[in-house]
């Protein structure tokens, strides 16, 4: 079953609102094993909508349209589709009753154009809209399924999940199940080279690598009769990938590095404090997005000035003078300083040049040192990051959290 | 000039990520008076992409494609477009040099598939990607403009704004010019009520209010022959709006509260330090996104534990015991403590309950105290914020920066 989604509304083409409906519908269809091949947005214009619908009708089995069901003259979706299919529009009695009582309730007369909302193509069923006045439409036209839903996601989504998805999943036997593997420390092209043969042979499950902010995820997607069977199809491929590049694996599915670090701190019963310079508080911000972390995270020091590094972290002024604030030595003293002064088990530090100014030939923008200290060991990593100030901050903060993970997991020995 | 946008990537059709690029590009084109007629998403599949491109090529003057420029075999955009237009792909020398030095810098050999990224169709220009390795492409094919940009918005957006939009706006005569007024401390419906008559009468300029994270912006958009004429159309409406609700105005256009605070610190020659609890470093992170701020921002203390509040900020243990860590008194002592211990002119503090746990009947989730201290005055604001943990952190951090702004501007007297 090939599906596609058409969003109707000039506000989408003006960039006033994002097309969240396409994402919501795609996810929901994917979960019941229906492939979505296209998304299209078109404005409130009958000719262009008609052309778009014609193309979709020729190539897809399921067409879901959103938007253009409202009361105004701009709302043309039902009119255009009925016209194309040569089906007259007729009032849906239940919708008409509902709108009548809606207005009676408010003591207002029904506006003429509200009648328009109750019209549906002959042979179609109305989908009740519990959060608005425009009903949806479900039509089986000689085996092609055409669905029309309102544009506002708050109205669209319940109608999709309560009526459309149950209807469509009855028609399909298969389910789709995805498993995401998350890697850090390996580039996208490196990873792809190591999995080249698997990717070349992929059929079921499919293997999709995706790079994002220094991480690479691999999504394995299987099609099967049910979830258990899908998991069985994924398992050997997942195992083979982990066998090859498992040393870079840090999590699965909706894991984030801050979530993993928080779990490790709880599991190993460790407390942590953070001393950061160029990241300016971002590392502590990320970690404190995890609720309950107050039991493990004691404090963060944003030591932006050299004076702050000295006063709050006991970094020697001599060290800064000799090696600079951005140096392995300073990172080391910062990590140790925040650990000792906080009395935590682990101290982590970040010092670097986020730019856009402040770089030199020896110490370019993007040079970042990340330090780790516990009672047994002190360790510093050197990084060169690309991109904007915000990018460099982001990469540095997540690298600091990854260093904590690797040290707790014993993946790095000094 | 008719434009359309094609986003390439199976992850979009699976609903894994939203198509934010289409919205960003549409907005930018609309601002220079170019109408966007269609958005399309298609997967990483050469046949379907080729079909989609063929349709677009027949009906539009400008086609902007995003995604599919990466190093992997799935990345097919350049290959498909060159194939359709019958243009061979050739390496762009500048991009090749850049990738070579990128890998040399890391002491790694260039992966074979990274060469692929440097290829562009004959006759096209490469668009430099400052935040990634895949360059973009700008091609004028007998008057049709074809642009290819990378999928990640952080790479795409700067290339769009710095190269593509300036190129396209040279080609158009009519200009659209927007002015954004930014308000804080007034709700969207309050604001709309105060501007009701202006909004009802709007033609040129249009007036579009938008609420976001405790702020409301009003975008005034004028269509004219040139920028000066557009500004003249906007001026009287802008003046009228400021006359009515100017006391809530804090900035214009791409101002952010952190940018405004940084400017005020420079203009008034003040230094600042931040003590934060529930925001966990986010306030310092926001402020340190402004480059050059190291001259004005000395340090941030993320005093998550009571011990940290006492040790680093000299908050009396008695105060915490008597009033609680989330209280006016603690906020006051935190702000004063961070100011005095850092020797800065201004100290600001945030303490609250970000949730989802930890709320009580007297002190619910979302209760946040924000403190301000300088040599003359100490001031505390009480807030109740709604929403998720992340939301409450965001609202608290920007409210803290707004308090600093209002205090420096003398808008609050103790």
UniProtKB/TrEMBL annotation, chains A, B:
<dbReference type="InterPro" id="IPR008135">
    <property type="entry name" value="Competence-induced_CinA"/>
</dbReference>
<dbReference type="Pfam" id="PF02464">
    <property type="entry name" value="CinA"/>
</dbReference>
<protein>
    <recommendedName>
        <fullName>Putative competence-damage inducible protein</fullName>
    </recommendedName>
</protein>
<dbReference type="Pfam" id="PF00994">
    <property type="entry name" value="MoCF_biosynth"/>
</dbReference>
<dbReference type="InterPro" id="IPR041424">
    <property type="entry name" value="CinA_KH"/>
</dbReference>
<dbReference type="InterPro" id="IPR001453">
    <property type="entry name" value="MoaB/Mog_dom"/>
</dbReference>
<dbReference type="Pfam" id="PF18146">
    <property type="entry name" value="CinA_KH"/>
</dbReference>
<dbReference type="InterPro" id="IPR036653">
    <property type="entry name" value="CinA-like_C"/>
</dbReference>
<comment type="similarity">
    <text>Belongs to the CinA family.</text>
</comment>
<dbReference type="InterPro" id="IPR008136">
    <property type="entry name" value="CinA_C"/>
</dbReference>
<dbReference type="InterPro" id="IPR050101">
    <property type="entry name" value="CinA"/>
</dbReference>
<dbReference type="InterPro" id="IPR036425">
    <property type="entry name" value="MoaB/Mog-like_dom_sf"/>
</dbReference>
<feature type="domain" description="MoaB/Mog">
    <location>
        <begin position="4"/>
        <end position="170"/>
    </location>
</feature>
């Amino acid at each position: 079953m090939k599906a596609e989604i058409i969003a109707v509304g000039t506000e989408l083409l003006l960039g006033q609102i994002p097309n969240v409906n396409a994402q919501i519908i795609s996810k929901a269809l994917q979960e019941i094993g229906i492939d979505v091949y296209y998304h299209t947005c078109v404005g409130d214009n009958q000719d262009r909508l008609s052309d778009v619908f014609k193309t979709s009708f020729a190539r897809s089995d399921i067409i879901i349209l959103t938007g253009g069901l409202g009361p105004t003259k701009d709302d043309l979706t039902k009119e255009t589709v009925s016209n194309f299919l040569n089906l007259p529009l007729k009032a849906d009695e239940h919708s008409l009753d509902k709108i009548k009582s809606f207005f009676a309730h408010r003591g207002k007369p029904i506006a003429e154009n509200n009648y328009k909302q109750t019209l549906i193509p002959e042979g179609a069923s109305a989908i009740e809209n519990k959060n608005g006045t425009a009903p949806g439409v479900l039509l089986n036209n000689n085996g092609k399924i055409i669905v029309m839903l309102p544009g506002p996601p708050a109205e669209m989504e319940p109608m999709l999940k309560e009526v459309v998805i149950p209807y469509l999943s009855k028609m399909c036997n298969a389910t789709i199940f995805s498993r995401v593997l998350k890697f850090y420390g390996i580039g996208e092209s490196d990873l792809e080279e190591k999995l080249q043969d698997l990717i070349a042979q992929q059929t079921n499950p499919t293997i999709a690598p995706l790079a994002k902010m220094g991480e690479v995820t691999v999504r394995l997607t299987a099609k099967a009769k049910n979830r258990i069977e899908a998991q069985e199809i994924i398992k050997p491929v997942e195992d083979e990938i982990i066998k090859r590049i498992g040393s870079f694996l840090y999590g699965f599915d909706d894991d984030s590095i801050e979530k993993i670090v928080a779990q490790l701190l709880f599991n190993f019963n460790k407390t942590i404090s953070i001393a950061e310079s160029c990241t300016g508080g971002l590392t502590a911000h990320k970690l404190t997005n995890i609720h309950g972390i107050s039991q493990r995270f004691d404090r963060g020091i944003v030591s932006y000035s050299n004076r702050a590094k000295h006063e709050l972290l006991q970094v020697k002024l001599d060290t800064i003078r000799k090696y600079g604030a951005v140096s392995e030595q300073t990172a080391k003293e910062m990590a140790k300083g925040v650990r000792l002064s906080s009395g935590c088990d682990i101290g982590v530090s970040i010092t670097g040049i986020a730019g856009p100014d402040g770089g030199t030939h020896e110490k370019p923008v993007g040079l970042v040192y990340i330090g780790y200290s516990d009672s047994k060991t002190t360790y510093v990593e050197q990084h060169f990051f690309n991109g904007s100030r915000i990018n460099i901050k982001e990469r540095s903060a997540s690298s600091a959290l990854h260093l904590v993970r690797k040290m707790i997991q014993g993946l790095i020995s000094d």
